Amino acid sequence: MSDLRYHNMHQLTSDPKARSTSENERISSRKRLLSVCILLLIAIAAIVAGKRLFEEKPVQASAPRPPAVLVSAPLEKTIRGQLQFLGQFSAVNDVELRAQVGGTLTRIGFKDGDIVKAGTLLFEIDPTQYEIKLANAAAQVERARTQVAKARTQVEMTHARFELASQELARAQTLQKTDAGSVENVQQRSEEQVSAKAAVDQAEASVKEAEASVHEAEAVLRDARYDVDHTRIYAPFTGRMGTHLVSVGNLVSGNRGGGNSTTLLATILSVDPIYLNFDMSEVDFLSFQRERTSRRSDLRNQVDISLSDENRFRRQGTLNFLDNTVDRSSGTIHARATVTNPDLLLTPGAFGRVRVNLSTEKHVLLIPDACVTADQADHAVLIVDATGAVEEKKVQVGDIRYGLRVVYSGLSTSDRVIVGGPPVAPGVKVSPTNSTIAAASDEGGY
User: Fold this and answer.
1) Which terminal residue of the chain has fewer beta carbons within 10 Å of its beta carbon, N or C?
2) Is pLDDT above 70 for 75?
3) Angle between the N-to-C axes of helices 183-229 and 128-177, in degrees from 0 to 180, rounded to the nearest 10
4) CA 109 to CA 125: how far, in whole Å?
5) Claim to verify: residue 189 and residue 307 sit in the same structural domain
6) Are both 259 and 275 inside the same structural domain?
7) Do 99 and 246 touch, CB atoms closer than 8 A?
């Protein structure tokens, strides 16, 4: 047995090929073992990483930082009283151009939007039918005047006959007194005088009738001439035309009394001067009236005007109308100013601001308008107190002055008003940073 093992080992060691094969098997076995170990390590690492990945990390709680805001003390100023209103421009004259006679529209004498002068021919309606009526009326007047001339000639003839009959009667009466004439002759001459007088009365009645016919014919003539004249429509004043509403060739209807039965052809608005209408509250109206009473010059009715895209009140107007009652529903009174418009920039329907300067002076505080919040009829401002907490204060505000909102009461000069930063609520702690409120020009703002 031992000899056999020895024989085999001797054979393995003595045979080089066998030795090489056995060594290769050992190397392959070691590589497989190493690969298995590496795979096991990878699997363990993956398990550990996955466990750590899916484990919930504890949330570390941290106190939130208070919001940062900008604070500033209100701006102090002494201002002269002003009243400002929002108004709307309107034309002094606003006319609808309507046809007063019917017919075919044959001409339009303007372009839409043109500025036309007073007396400019705007529309023309075919006048043929009205010219025919005018010619007939003129002929009728001539015939009536001819009848009057004939009647007056007849009156002259009857007057001559009456004078002759009167003379013959007087002669007959004289002869009768001297016994040279007879009673029958006097009676005959008297009858002739009466007949001549009746002829005079009849001739004069014919003249009056003929003159009445002339008046009637002249009225028909004026009526016909009126129709002819109104076939041409002229600009009643210098103004700006709207768009034409009827084109040439259309049949238009006319009515001298106007109304919806007439055809609307276009509209024309006067442009210089122009009205600015606005409403005053009862309180502002009383302040304005007291100011007007204290002034005795023409400045008592002067107002300053600014357009919606302007930041200065460069235009002036004159108050020319105050209504006679305060509207009960709105608590306002209507007012109107006249404004010159030489550059034709002011347009009816556009809005403008009206400012009335008062002589009274007031000491007020000014803050940015964005700092004021409105709640129904109340206004409030947020400030930061000594502890850094937000506090709300009720305030009474006025208009915009120097680009800032006027505060009459509710704030003090030592208050720190929140003028910038994120929105915050009362009671919240904040981190305030000091800032400064800057005043702008006093010309703009409403």
Assistant:
1) N
2) yes
3) 170
4) 12
5) no
6) no
7) no
- CB 58 within 8 Å of CB 399: no
* Residue 402 zone, left/alpha/beta (φ > 0; ψ -120 to 50; rest): left
Query: 264 and 118 in one domain?
Result: yes
Q: How many structural domains are present in the chain?
A: 5
Residues 32 and 114 in one domain: no
Which letter does DSSP use for residue 259 in this model?
S
Q: Are residues 296 and 241 in the same domain?
A: no
Amino acid at 304: D
- Position of tokens 């601001």? 353
Alpha carbon 383 to its chain centroid, in Å, reads 40
Which pLDDT band holds residue 375 (cuts at 50, 70, 90)?
confident
pLDDT digits (tens, 9 = 90+) for 112-123: 999 999 999 999
pTM of the model: 0.61
Question: Range of 189's domain?
Answer: 127-230
Distance CA 179, CA 133 (A): 68
Q: How many CA atoms does the CB half-sphere of 54 hold within 13 Å?
A: 5
In whole angstroms, give the CA distance from residue 168 to residue 180: 14
Of 307, 330, 361, the one marking the end of a domain is 361
Region at 421 (left for phi over 0; alpha for psi -120 to 50; beta for the rest): left
